Amino acid sequence: MKILISDKLADEGIAILKAVKEFTVDCKYNLPKDELKSVIKDYDALIIRSSTDVTADIIEAAKKLKFIGRAGVGLDNVDLTAATKKGIVAMNTPAGNTTSTAEHTMSMILALSRNIPQACASLKSGKWDRSKFTGVELYGKVLGVVGLGRIGSTVSKFAKAFGMTVIAYDPFLSMEVAAQRGIEVVEMDALLKRSDYITVHIPKTSETSNLIGEKEFGLMKKTARVINCARGGIISETALAKALQDKRIAGAALDVFEEEPPSTDHPLLKLDNCVLTPHLGASTSEAQVNVAIEIAETVRDALLGKGIVNAANFPSVDAEAYKILEPYINLGFRLGKFAGQLINGRMKEIQITYSGVVNNYKVAPITMSLVNGFLSPILGETVNFINALDLAKERGVNVQEIKSNVEEEFVNCIKVKVITDKEEFSILGTISGNKQPRIVKINEVYVEAVPEGYMVFINNNDKPGLVGALGTILGEAKVNIAGISLGREAQNGIAISVVNVDSAVPEEIIERLKKTKDIVFVKLVKV
Questions:
Q1: 315-443 belongs to which CATH class?
Q2: Identical fold, 2-96+287-314 and 98-276
Q3: Is 303 in a helix, a strand, or coil?
Q4: Which of 427, 425, 457, 445 is nearest to 487 (CA)?
Q5: DSSP conformational letter for 50
Q6: Distance between CA atoms of 507 and 418, rounded to whole angstroms?
Q7: How buried is residue 227: exposed, middle or buried, by Cβ count under 10 Å (0-12/13-18/19+)?
Q8: Nearest to 388 by CA among 468, 306, 309, 320
Q9: Average pLDDT in the 53-61 region?
Q10: Any idea which of 129-143, 299-313, 337-351 has the lowest mean pLDDT?
Q11: Mean pLDDT score, 298-322
Q12: Cα(364)–Cα(380) distance, rounded to whole angstroms?
């Protein structure tokens, strides 16, 4: 079996692969796209980092390729849809840089607290200005952690060693699990108001983009300091620069940017109360070795038939069954992603009830896909088919799988009930005649919605004039309506509108909809 390594990989990883007598390992770095497309036909596995873009045409040219291994977390440089269609498994290394990134976060917190970069520059310029760089202690301060995945949890552990009090916001972490870790879980507004330091450890998704903006900075203490070693764009750089300039907060430290590298006239580069590094979170020799070893072992075991781990795109099911289950795997993912953006409160349980033809097969791949979709709005690329159930379990979320023989309103359907500490939310989905996913019931309201692209979800009082007002507001914003589904519990009761639109709806338009008469709730959902 032949393995192509197209990006620089630590020698320790290469040695693991070369030690297997069945493998031929070729290291060909920085191949032009046309050359990669030409040679890929001969290989069973491809190992990459961030430099190689595995596009649909390269995947199409791969005649023997079974596995793509990414030495790192992000798989945004791999066309997962094309890989899945061709049966190629894409795998990553979600744990390899955990310690490195967590340590860098603590380094940024310390540098920010003690003015280390500024003091160093001042001393090297010939000054001895001790009073100018008086800092603050970490001991006794409150650290607010947004996202308690691997890295967020490690940062929390490190912070406690400094005598800090840790609070956290993570809507997919149960109170019980947080208590076991000695961490108080709070809502986002409470975290912003109480924290002396705020650090984010979540992926950038449509849900988390600009999660911390002007409004959020307005809730913080004037002595607060914010840190981002996760993904650029989670903290609005425009709002951050303004908050720092106006002394609305005390300082910030960023390792990541919306555009990398940032432009030379970026406002954050000019501020003394902002510590910046060029995306160094995973840049330690140990992290580079760790991800190389992890991806080498992952690809080795997969090729030798010893099991697949950290697969981002492929459930474990035989080819014949997959043909039947594939539309339902797709439906499950979309139902989960839709519901995951609409729930209110902290999750306790996800009940999934299957009816119809799918009960003749193992439904585990559908469950995995559904939970993957459910967690992805918050956890992004750190969650996949393979680890979704484990991540739910880590967060204290019980996933219950039920095969029902009771005749439902639809012959072949998936019903999802989500139980939180504040409500129960249910959704029913089925497959249309052309095998496309459909949402046919939300709570007790029947709809006919297509879970695809951008969707505006509305709860409203069943009164005349809503559709006209909705069309007017979206039309004035140049947002085209692709489809609309309406349903109601009873005449003059609570109604639901699900509107498919061709583009994202600006936040100011969502706010305008919220203020429209008889509209109770509005949320832009991306499926």
A1: alpha beta
A2: yes
A3: helix
A4: 445
A5: S
A6: 27
A7: buried
A8: 309
A9: 94
A10: 299-313
A11: 77
A12: 21
**Residue whose tokens read 């139980």:** 419
On the question of pLDDT at 522 being above 90, the answer is yes
- For the chain, domain boundaries: 2-96+287-314, 98-276, 315-443, 453-527
Q: Which of 18, 53, 51 minimizes the C-alpha distance to 34?
A: 53
pLDDT at residue 133 greater than cutoff 90? yes
Alpha helices in 115-149 (DSSP H): 116-124
Residues recognised as catalytic: 231, 260, 279
Q: Is the pLDDT of residue 317 over 70?
A: no
In angstroms, rounded to a whole number, what is the distance separating the alpha carbons of residues 498 and 466?
12
- Tokens 């920085």 belong to residue: 30
CATH superfamily of 2-96+287-314: NAD(P)-binding Rossmann-like Domain (3.40.50.720)
C-alpha 240/C-alpha 238 separation (Å) is: 5
Q: List, as one string, the DSSP characters of 359-419.
A: GGS--HHHHHHHHHHHHHHHHGGG--TTTHHHHHHHTT-EEEEEE--S--SSSSEEEEEEE
Determine which helix (DSSP H) or strand (DSSP E) holds 11, and give its type and residue range: helix 11-18
Tokens of 495: 């109604």
Which CATH topology does 98-276 take?
A: Rossmann fold (3.40.50)
Please write the tens of the pLDDT for every residue from 71-88. Answer: 987 787 899 878 877 878
User: Can you give the pTM of this predicted structure?
Assistant: 0.73
